[in-house]
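Review form for a predicted model. The reviewer records the input and the model, then writes brief findings.
Reviewer: anonymous (R2)
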Amino acid sequence: MIIKFDEEYFMRKALQQAEIAAEEKEVPVGAIAVRNNQVIACSYNQVEKLKDATAHAEMLVITQAEYAVGGWRLDEVDIYVTKEPCAMCAGAMVNARVNRVIFGMHDPRCGAACSAMKITSFPGMLHKVKVKGGVLEAECSEIMKKFFREVRKTKMKPLKIDE
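Model under review:
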């Protein structure tokens, strides 16, 4: 018997990754990659931990998914992420030929899937990533709001490995 999971089920898995990021004092964004109804990769923001500006949840999950499928073409892979991808991550999804990106909260200032920019469907691109936004948007927004309320309240600084 094959059980088909829905988008909310997979977004909850991405939210679990975002919770890990928050616990590690990283901006709480989580992502998972799904192929054939199975999670093949999962990650969360690790910019501070790895001291790497490109260590966004989406970038890390793309790398893991490529390893899992044995190649760079992710045309059978959907990526679930708690926040709309930035320009770098959306561009990487196009280059990796990701089938679909499903995200939680919209990012009207920097979102590059459908809000501020539409990199995933830019005219002339060789591949267009299908986009669906707003899945569990309230929950995805709340974890981000909670994190930044705490940052402002405690003047918490991002994780510094050297300290």
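Findings: The chain has a mean pLDDT of 92.
Further findings: The CA atoms of residues 4 and 99 lie 18 Å apart.
Recommendation: see findings above.
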